[in-house]
Fold these 3 entries.
Entry 1:
Amino acid sequence: MTHSASIASGSACPSQVSDSDEAEHSTDHGSIAQRMGRFSRWALAALACLWLALCTAVGPIYWADSSIASWSWFQTLTLLGSFAVYFSMVCALVRFGRGQRIIPLTWLRTTRASLASRLQASSQANSQVSKICLAIRRFFTSRLWVGMKTACSRILIQATNRRWKIALILCVGWIWIPTTLLSAYGADIRSQMREFSWAWNQWTGVHQPYIGFFSFVPMDIYPTAHYLWPESSTYLTDQHNIVLTIVHGAVAAASRYLTGSNDWGLVTLSAMQWLFAILCCSATLHRFLNLPWLRREAVFATPSPFGQPEYSQALELIDPTHPERGYRPLTLECRTKKNGSALLPAGPIFRFAFLPFFLFCPLVVFSTISLTKSPLFAFAFVWWFGIGYELHMTSGLHLGTKRGLRKRSFIAMLIATCIMLISAKYAWYILVFQLVLFLIADRKRWYVYVITTLLPVIVIHGGIALMINNGSIISGDPIESRGIQLQQIARIAKRNPSAISSSAKARLSAVFNLDQMAEAYYPQDADPVKSSGIQSKKVSYRWRSATPEDLEAFNKAWLEIIKADPVTATDAFLAKCFGYFNVFDQPYVAMNYYVSNDYVQQSSTWIKYQFHDWRNTISEDAQQWGEIPVLGWVTHGNFYVTLTLIFGAAEVILRRWRTLVWHMPLLLLMGVMITAPANNFERHMLPVAFVFGCMALTFWRESRPRAACSKAAL
C-alpha cells in the first residue's frame, strides 16, 4: 500500500507515532513537570544563543585590546541583535523539526499578496518587465529545465552511490595537494624529530647532556617540569603524543639516513595522511549519503532508476504518464518508529553541498597534508562519527528492530578509536564520557562499545601511563591545561599589578616569575606565558625548579588574584576564547599557515625550492577568500562551530536525546577549544567543521517525515 493510500485510509504517518515531541503536546501537556521541562530546554537553548551573542559583541572590544569595562551601547545593540538572529535560527529549526512551516502560513499569505500587488503594479507600469518575468517563469516550468535538472540529479547520484566512487572523486580533486604543496608542517613535528633523534643517539651510545641550567634539551623547548623527569635519562615525552613522536621521528630519521635530509620523510608522512583522509571522508560520506546498511532491507516500492536497490525506495516518477519529467523523493516511503526518521539515501542537493566543501574548503584541503596532531585526529573523528551514525540508525528506532554492527564497521570503529587516541591526548576523556552515554542509551549492544572504545582506551592510554610510571617516557606537563589561569594572572599582572597581594606573589614565586609573565602576556595565546617555544623565549615558568606542592600553592594564588580583580580576569578568559564562537573573527592561526611558514619555505632542505611561489600564492588566496565578509565565513572553523551549537540547541528543544548522545562529542570538543592555549586556533575546530554537514543531514532526515505528514494533512 502506498503512503498516499495509507493517509487516505487513516493510517498513522511517521510523525503521528507517539514520541517525546508529540507527547509534550498531548492532553496533559499542562502539567507542571512538562512545563518545567519545556522551560528548561528553551532556557538552555537561549543560554547557548546568549553565549554566541556575547562572543560576537565583545569582538570589537578585544580587537582593540580593550576591556569589557568599556562596554558601550554599540556592544549592547550587537548583543541584542546577535541574540535575536541566533535565537530566530533555533526557532526556525524547531518549527522545521516539528513539521511546521518555518514562516507561519498567515505571514506567507500576507507577503504573497503584497508581492503580487506590487508585481501587478510594476507590470502595468512596465510591460517589458512583465514579459521578461513571464519568460523566466515559463523556462523554469518547461520540459527543458525539468529535463536538465533531472539529468544532473541522476548523474550526481550515480557518481556518488558507492564508496569507491566518492574516494575516486576525492583522489582526483585532491591530487594537486601532495604533488604541488608536497608537505605542510610547523614547529611541533620539528620538536618530535628532535626528541626522537636525541633518544636514538642515547640508544646508540652517543653521550648527550641530560640536565643543566644553561643547556636546553628537547623537553625544555616545550618545557616539561623537571620534577616529572625520571631518574634515568630519557628524551622521549608525551608532550606531542608519544606514538606520533616515534612514528614521525622514525620516518624522518630514516629519511636522513637514506637521503641526507628530513624532507623526503616529511613528504612521505604527508602522502600517508592524504590517503588516510580520503579513506575517512569517503567512508563517512558513503554512510551518510547512501545508507549502505539498508541494502538488504530495501523496500522495492518502484523500479530502481539506477539499478541500485537502495534507491528503489527513494524515488518515484513525478508523472507516470510523462516519464521525461523525471523522479522525485518518496517523501513518506519510510519505516520509522519513535524518531520518525526517513531512511532514505540523500538527494542531489545534499550531495552537491558535500562535495564542494570537501574539495575546495581550505580547512579540508590544507589539513590533508598538515603534519600536526589535530588534522589526523579530525579525520579519524570523521570516520568514527560516521560509524556512530550507523550505530544510531540501526539502534531499533529506525529499522524497527535492533541490528548488530557490520563487521567492516566494527573493525573500522576500532581502528578509528585507536588513531584518535594516539593523535590527541584529550581523546580518551571524550571517548570514556561517550562510552558511558552509549552504554546507557544502547545497552543491548554493550559489547560493541566495550571492544571498540573501552579496550583501546585501556591498552593505549593505559600503556602510555605505564611507560610514564616506569620512566620510559616523560609525561606532558599539567601546566598545558592551565591556559585560562595563566592568562588571567598574566593579564592582571600587566594591566592591574596592584591587585596582586603579597601573599599571592609569594605563592606564585615558586612557579612563575610574575614580571616575566606580565611582559610575555599576549591576549590571543597562552604559550608565551608558559615559556613554550624556542630558546629566546621569556622564561616566566620556572619549570626547572617547580614541584607539585608549588602547583597547589599556584591554584590558591590564582583564586585570590581573580577575586581581587574579576573584571580583568573575565577579560583574559573571553579574549582567549571568544573567537571560536564569533563568525566575524579572523583565525589567529589558519590552516594555510602550515603550508607557507618559514619552517617549510626557509628551513627545509629542498622542499623550499619546489613550488615555492605557488605555495605562497595558494596560502594568500585562501587568506583573501577568508577575509571576504560573509562569503569568507565558509572557510573558517568558527562558522561551523556556531552552526553546530545552534543545531544542538534545536535538538535539545525537540528532545532528540538519542541523537544528542551521539552528538555529545561535538560539545566536548568545544570545551577543548575553550581550554586550548590559543584563541580561534583553526586546527582545534577541524573535527566540528568536517562533520557539520553530516549533522545537518541528520537533522533534515529526522525532521522530514513530520514535514511530509504535516503537508499531507493540509
Entry 2:
Amino acid sequence: MEYRNPVFRLSLMAAAIVGLSACFDSDSKLAVEVPEPPATEQPESLPPQPELATFAPEGQALTAQINWTDYGVPYVKADNLESLGFGVGYAFANDNICILADQIVRFNSKRSLYFGPHTPGTTDNANLVNDFGYLALGIRDNAEQHFEDLSDEAKALLNGYAEGYNEYLARTGSANIDPGCAGQPWVQPITPMDLLTFSQGVALLPGAANFVQTMFIAAPPGQSFEPMPVAGAVAEPVKTNISVRGIPDPNPTEAGSNGWAIGKDKSASGKGMLLANPHFPHTGNQRFWQFGIEVPGSLKVVGGSLSGMPGIVNIGFNENVGWTHTFSTAEHFVLHRLKLNPDDTAGTSYMVDGEPVAMTTKTHQIQVATGPGSFVTLEKTSYHTQFGPVIVVPGQLPWGTDFTGDAVAYTINDANLPNFDIFDHWLGLNRARNMDEYKAVFEQETGIVFNNAMAVDKDGNAFYTDGSSVPNLSPDAVEAWQNDLFHQRLSDAAGLPIVPGDSALFMTDGKIPFERAPQLERTDFVQNSNNSYWLSNPAAPLELSPLFGPTGVEQSYRSRMGQKLLAEKETLAKDDLVAALTDNRNFLGEELLEPLLAACTAQGVQPVLVGDELVSIKPACDALVLWDGTMNKASAGGMMFREFAIEFGKDPQWQVAFNPADPTNTPRELDANSIVMRQLAVAQQRIVEAGLDPAATLADVQFVERSLPDGSPSGNRLPWGAP
C-alpha cells in the first residue's frame, strides 16, 4: 500500500481510564470484574458486528490520540485499525524503543553485523548461532512470501505500527532516546515486514528458537559444521568451538502464569470475574506492556501485550468479555527420528515407507563485524527434510550411528513455523461480545501460539481451552506412537516427544484444530496455573491427546494453592480475587509449617549430620517460629522456608502419597523424619554460608538495586517480595 506522512496528536489524561472496573499493579497483575449487563433486555442473538474501519482513507494522514494516565499507561484512540496501530507503535516506542529495536535485529539475523560474533565480554559465538539459526528457520523468508496473504486487518495494524514507531524515532532523534540504545546504528526505522518477521520469531520461543544451536552444529557425518568465509585469503572453516550441552529446554525462563475465570454461580455478585496473573519477565522482550485501545463504536479494550504486538491486546477485557492466558503444557513441536538411507554414504537421504528421500539444503550468508568499519562475510549450509530442519545433540540426538547401531538423524517440526494467525486471532478476542463469539475465534484461527486461554463474559459464562499451536499428528499416529515402546522410552529420556520419521503416518498436517483441543465451559469457574488442561475444573476432569500434556499426574504446589483458594469459599467477591493476588500465601508452608516446627523443636540443639559435619538446626527452627506463612516483604523467616522448600522438593517426604483419584488433596501430611531434618540443615547452611541471617525478612535479602554509571551498586534498593 502507499504510505502516508503521519500526523500525531498527543494529550495527557490525569485520571485513570473510566467505565471499566480493574485493578492493576507494577507486577503485571490484573484483577477484572466484568461490568454488569445493561438494564435493558438483551435480544437472544446479537446483531452483526459493527463495521471496523481498516485503513485510513486514501490520501489522509494517520492520526491517533494518546492519553497517558498518572501512572504512565497510554490509552490510544483512532478512527481505524491502521491509525490505531500507528498510535500504539508510537506509544510503545516512547516507553520501550530499545527492546523492540534489539529484537528486530535479532530475528532479522543481524546481530553479528552490529555486535560482532559474540555476546559482550565472551567468546561464545552466540550472535553467529542466532543469525544462522533464524536464517535456517526461514522466518524472514516466510514473512516476505506470505505478507500479501495476510488479512487487510493484519496488514493495517502492521503498517500503522511501523509508521508510529518510525514517527517517534524521527521526532525524538536516535541520539535523544533511551540511553540504553541512544545513537546506536542498529536503532533504525522499521518496516511492516520487520514486524511480521519479529512476530514469527516470538512464536518460536517455546520451540524451535531454543534449538538454533542444535541446527548450527548439524552437518552430515564426517563434515564440518563451521561457517566458511566467502572471500579473502582464508579458505578454511572459521573455528567457533560451539558445543551443545544436552537437549534444549523449551521453556528456559520458566515462563508461567495463573488465571481464573469466575462464572456467575461462583461469583458473589452473580457477575463474571477474571483474575489474570501473568508471570512473564519484568525485563526484555517478553515483558508485558499495559495500554488501552479504542476505535469508537467498534473496539474498546484495556490490558497488556508482549513487546511489538501491533495495536491489539493479548490479555485484557472489553465491555463484554475478559480473558487471560497461561503458558501451556502442550507440545508445540515434535522431534522425528529419521532412518538414513543405507545406500547413501553421505548420510543426506532418509527412508520414508521404504523409499529414499533426499534432504534439501539452504545456503545462508551473514556479515560479521570484525572491528570498527570492517566486516567479513560468512557462509553456512542448513539441512532440511519433510519433517523439518535437521538438529544434532551430541551423544543424544546424533546424525549418524546411534546407540542401537542404526544410522539416524533427528529433525524438529514446530507447529508455529509459520504462524500468521496471531493478529487476526487476538483482534477477534478483542472484539468478542459474548462467549459464543469468543469461542468462534478459536474455530477460525490458531494464533494464541503457546497459551491456555480462560475467559468470562458479562453473563457469567466461563470458558477454558488450550488454544496453543500443537503439531497435528493424526489420531492413528498418536495411538501408534503411544504403543511404540522404543519411541516412548526415547521420548521419556529426552523429556520431549520423539516420533518415528520413517513413515508418512507421522507427518504432521498443520495444527490440531479447535474441535480436538481441550475445552470446558462452566458457570462456576475454570482455571489454570501451568499444569495441564486435566483439572481446569476438578469437578469435570478432561482427557485428550497426550500432545496437550499429561493427565493423572501430581499437581504443582502453585496449582494446588489456586485450587485451595477457589474451594475455600462457596462464592467469591472481587476483594477475594485481589487478596488471592496480593496476600502471597504459600501452599507448602500451610501444609508443612506446623509439623515441621514440632519436629525441629523436638530436635532442639541436638545436631544433624550433613556429610561429615554436625549442624545445629536451632537457628532455622527459631527463624521458622517467626514466619507468618506468607512470602511478603516483611515475612521474617520466609527465606528460610523457601530454601528448605528447595531441598524438600528434591526428595519430598509425605505420609499420604499422590492419588490420581484425589489430586487436589494429595500428597499430604509431612513425614517429619531424619531426611527432613537434614534438608532443613542443608538449607540453613546455604543461607549462613552466603552471610545471611536465617531469620531475615524477604525485603532484607531480595531486591532490585540501581547501578551507578560505572556499574557499581548505588545502595538504592527496591525490596522484592514473592518471586
Entry 3:
Amino acid sequence: MFRKILFILIVTLSALSSTVYAQKAPDPNGGNTGTVVDLDSTAGKIIDSVAKAKDTTVAGVSASVSKLANAVSTLANGDGHNKISINFVWLMMGGFLVFFMQAGFALVETGLTRAKNVAHTMAMNLFIYPAGVVGFFVSGFAIMFGGLGALGTLGGFDGLNHEVTVNLFGHTFGLFGAKGFCMNGVYDVGVLGFFVFQVVFMDATATIPTGAMAERWKFASFALSGLFVGGLIYPIYGNWVWGGGWLSQLGANFGLGHGHVDFAGSSVVHMAGGVLALVGAKMIGPRLGKYNKDGSINAIPGHNIPMAVLGALVLAFGWFGFNAGSTLAGTDLRLSVVAFNTLIASCMGAAASTLWIWFVRGNRPDVTMMVNGLLAGLVAITAPCAFVSPLGAVAIGLISGLIVVEVTLVVDRKLKIDDPVGAVAVHGANGLWGILALGLFADGTYGDGLNGVKGGVRGLFYGDGGQFVAEFIGGVVNFVWFAAAGWILFKLLDKIAGNRVNPEVELYGLDLHEMGLDGYAGVKMDKNAETPLSR
C-alpha cells in the first residue's frame, strides 16, 4: 500500500520537478519565465529531493510527505509574499504619481496669476508639502486612520485599532482614531507605505486654497494653515469616510447603501479643499482692482498660459495614481476600469467646458476653461471611478464641464468672490457632483463587502436610492465641517499672523516683500504691476 502511494507521489513530483527545472535557456519572449522555481529555489530543491527519493519504507514515505508539505508551504508563502509585494509596488507608484501632482498645482496656479507674484505662488505650492506632512505625521494620520483596522492588502497589520466612538440610537459612531501619533507603535512596512500614499492626498487638499487666495495671502498665515489642515481639519472628515468613521457606516447602521462612499477623494480631498478655498477667499477679500465700486468686474489675466496648460497635463498624468492607485492593490484588476473612467471623464469635461464657453457663454474657446474643464472631469470622476461603467463616466465628465463654467461665473459675478484659478468651481462644486454622481451611476459591479455591506455599490439609477441619500448626507456634512473649521482657522490665523498683505505690497507684488527676491530675475514691476518692465 505504502509503495503504491510512494510510487504515485514520486511520479507526480517528478513531473513537477521537470516542470520547475525544464527551462534553463534564455527566454526572449518571457513565456517560460515566472514558473514555480521563481517563487523560491528552496522549494524547488525540496521537490527535486522528494522526486528522487528511493526509501519506500513507512518512515521513508513519511519523510517524503513531510518534505512535500514543507515545499508546498514554502511555495504558498512565496506566492503570498509576491501578491503583497505587487500591492506594495502599485501603492508606492500611485503615491509617487500623486506627489508629482504638486508640480501640476504649482504650474497651474502660478500660470493663472500675475508675474509679480510668481515666487510667492510657487513658494506656497512648495512649502505646503512639508507643512502639511509635519501636521499629518504628528497627529493627522492617527486621527484619520488610527482606528482603521487591519490593512488586508498590505500584509494584514492590525495595530491601527483604536477608534474613539460614541453610542447613539443603538448604533456605534466612529469619531476619530487615536493610534499612531508621530507614527509611534505602528512601525510596520504596510503602515508606513500606507502613510506615504495617504499623505500626498492630504497635500492636495491643503494646496487648493492657495490658488483661490493667491496674490494677497501672507506667507506666514499660509504656512500655519498647512499645519492645521494636515494635522486636524482634513483628518477628522477623512476618518468619517475612509477611517471607519460614522459616515462610512450609514449603510451598516441605517441601510443607506454602503454608507458614504468616496473611492479616491471627490469629497474627502477636493470638495474639502474647495470649501476651504471658498471660505478663505471670501474672508480675505478680492484682489485690489478686481471689482469696481459699481460692481463691475475687471479681468485680471494670468501671466503664463503655457505654464498653466502644462500644469493641467501634469495633473492629468498624476491623477492615474490618484484614482487607480486607490485600489490599494496591484492585484485588484478593477484598476484598469478606474484608469479608463479617469481618462474618459477628464476628456469629456474639457470638451464640454470648451464648447459651452465657446458657443453658449462667449464667442471663442477659452484656454483657461479648457484647463479647468479637464480638471473638473478629473475631480468629478474621482469618487465614482471604480463603480461606474464607461458610459456613466462619459455622462459624469460632460456634466462636470458645464458645472465648472457656470459655477465660475456665479462665484465671480454673483457672489463677488475673487478666485484667481477657479478652485471653488473645479474642486468644490465638482467634488460635490462627484459623490452625487456615484449615488446615481454606480452600477453594482464592484464594491462587494465595502464598509461591511454585501453586494456591489448601486446608485439610484440602478435600484438603490439609499446610496444617493448617503452621498448627499456626506456632502452636506463636508460643507458644514469644512466651512465651520475654515472660518475658525482663518479667524485664528488673522489674529496670529494676519491673513492679508498691506495694499502697497499687493500693488507692487508679493515676491520681493514676502519672499526676498523677484520670481523673474532681471525684471521689475510698475506700481500697477500688471506687466513687467525691463530694468
